Prior knowledge:
Pfam families: FliD_C, FliD_N. By secondary structure, this protein is of the alpha+beta class.
Amino acid sequence: xxxxxxxxxxxxxxxxxxxxxxxxxxxxxxxxxxxxxxxxxxxxxxxxxxxxxxxxxxxxxxxxxxxxxxxxxxxxxxxxxxxxxxxxxxxxxxxxxxxxxxxxxxxxxxxxxxxxxxxxxxxxxxxxxxxxxxxxxxxxxxxxxxxxxxxxxxxxxxxxxxxxxxxxxxxxxxxxxxxxxxxxxxxxxxxxxxxxxxxxxxxxxxxxxxxxxxxxxxxxxxxxxxxxxxxxxxxxxxxxxxxxxxxxxxxxxxxxxxxxxxxxxxxxxxxxxxxxxxxxxxxxxxxxxxxxxxxxxxxxxxxxxxxxxxxxxxxxxxxxxxxxxxxxxxxxxxxxxxxxxxxxxxxxxxxxxxxxxxxxxxxxxxxxxxxxxxxxxxxxxxxxxxxxxxxxxxxxxxxxxxxxxxxxxxxxxxxxxxxxxxxxxxxxxxxxxxxxxxxxxxxxxxxxxxxxxxxxxxxxxxxxxxxxxxxxxxxxxxxxxxxxxxxxxxxxxxxxxxxxxxxxxxxxxxxxxxxxxxxxxxxxxxxxxxxxxxxxxxxxxxxxxxxxxxxxxxxxxxxxxxxxxxxxxxxxxxxxxxxxxxxxxxxxxxxxxxxxxxxxxxxxxxxxxxxxxxxxxxxxxxxxxxxxxxxxxxxxxxxxxxxxxxxxxxxxxxxxxxxxxxxxxxxxxxxxxxxxxxxxxxxxxxxxxxxxxxxxxxxxxxxxxxxxxxxxxxxxxxxxxxxxxxxxxxxxxxxxxxxxxxxxxxxxxxxxxxxxxxxxxxxxxxxxxxxxxxxxxxxxxxxxxxxxxxxxxxxxxxxxxxxxxxxxxxxxxxxxxxxxxxxxxxxxxxxxxxxxxxxxxxxxxxxxxxxxxxxxxxxxxxxxxx
Length: 866
């Protein structure tokens, strides 16, 4: 950079002169800066709008499915006994509920002790032992605690809390209050001593619980009895007792797991049985209309999602399936593969005639040849001469095989290999349509064939078909992880029994099988309940010997098993000692943890909390009802469905109104972003007003915006056919106000007739609510399809392209590139300005230097004449 001297000798305003001389360059730079600023504002405008459109797109995704509208409301005859919420899957109607038992948390109130404060120590309570080892057991988890004579009441509370209990010491009543944090039998707790000192410390703390004191002076629930019961005359006898208990425990848990699996399969088989019979009846009706439709549909069902891109062809009484491959024939036609009964693959080529919009299918001939490929992956035009297994000749070039990678490399004059020039030898399979190949007829698209059959059903049948098929496939595809396939209650056995029953006498035979063939105890539900009760009994028996659970989980004869066995032996011996030596506080009270139990429609359910989720109902038990029942009434939440539609329209209206406003905005005319110098001449309010004028007009008449708006409006105006009748939004009293009646830029917004919150239409008849009350299924099906149309329309506009990213309705990639180019261009012009300024300042510097010399010379001459 040149040294910039500003008129020190000449007195000229060099800075101003240079600025004026480069002004044309500065103007060009500012032009690009303004364009970049305007582009940045445009990006911000699009980002803001895109966020709202994507939000709408995401929200309407769920509206495409019936669950979005299948809203239910429920009432309970006695809200002091239970509260109930209904999900979309809850059945309509009235159900009976009994709350037999409430879940409770384990709770202990300690005996009164002489600790005057939380700082009182065990020693002050009379404890004289050493390390007091305690165990806190909650369900399957056991935690150890160690106390000493110096431990305070606060220390005890802290240790109990760390072990997972809620614990407090009340110095006013001089007692400990201890409870489990969760309700239920599995979450109950016991606190025992692991040694004599531990048992003694518990007694000093007033929390040594052994149950009620009997007339004989013993305690009804001595916590050490369970372990002590395994004690024998010697350690070997004790170990034998322990291992016998392990065997019993394993048998009980194995049988319980088996019975639970059987019970679960039987319950699922009930739904499967009715669904299977329904599905077979639908197949019969299809065949009555179109012979062979059921076999065709069954094949298409098995294809599932692979129907897209698959073809089917009639082959006698069955169908062949062709799946689309990535292979092509020698002319570039896509190949489809069929595998025959001998597991051989056959291919056909799909030849498209774009002019006639048709596709013909031909068998292809498969052949294999040796292919020679160069280093760029291109096949050589001329076949090399094979000298031997290691040498290939191409003209005057020699290629030698590299045993490491199997490629042939060019041999240079010095005998080394040129790794940039190679030939790969491979076997290439080619598919060719024979000259006499005949166009295969009867081939059709699997997805089109499926849609054709489905569309032949009426809406009621279609709904029954969807539900029955989903149930049937779910059961038949389920896996037995506990039961063998030969078990009479395995999925395979129950499936066969139900299918045989239907084959014998149709739906009636299936219903008899499920209900018990006239004997109620033989019904699947009763069998399932009996097995569940037996499993529960086994589980309870296993819980009685839960002390061997950890040992039972080890691999016998392993070191882990041996260590666990010895640990349990020590515990049994300690418990045997403590069985008679431990002291218990007769005043301590313990409330056992308890599971809840309810009956819904006569079926018993148990749980460790008072909350249940059953068949779409969320039940919160509040109080026991005894043998009396309360009723739960569930029905369609018509107001909820109405609000769902209204919320959807409100969101759509907000976005389409904003789009309309942006598209119809006033022109900014000659307004351009301000430079810093221009801003210095204006107030903050003037600057804001100026920039707002530009920002509001950025998307005016934007073709991309117009395209998105048109797509959305077209989707909303589309009609939907339901049961042979066409419906549109106007069918349900939903329409726009039109250009003459709507507020500015709101002509594309939809209003619901009779909407009390809409002053434009509140006085009209509410056709939407009437339709929801009279025929909710039609309203739901219409809204599903309308939402699907809008979802697809927006989705198409948000697809990724070379100019835009995925889920973006504008050309964000293109704008980002343009912004980067502007930055680069501005830097180039800044460089040009700097260079020109340096040039001119250099000239002025030279002039100033010359004038300084001239002045110096004049001064010297003048001195001669003075």
